[in-house]
Specification:
Layout lengths: L21 H21 L4 H10 L6 H13 L4
Helix pairs in contact: 1-3, 2-3
Amino acid sequence: MNDTKCKICQNKIDKSSDKFCSNHKHAKTKLRNGYELWLKAYDSLPYDDFLRQLLDLGDLVGTLVKDITEFELYFQETK
């Protein structure tokens, strides 16, 4: 059974099949799109390395993207 709260911030989610609120869901989409651009530019970059590089940027990364990055890197059940 899925809760009706975001796995990150505990805000309400739109659909029971979602893990994240609309803000974190949008940030995840942007994160994935950014990764696709990096792949085109650098040809090969493991996703975990991409996430670590984002975290190394510190305050240059927005809070919502940082939340998703940390979740994907440290708390994801399956990779």
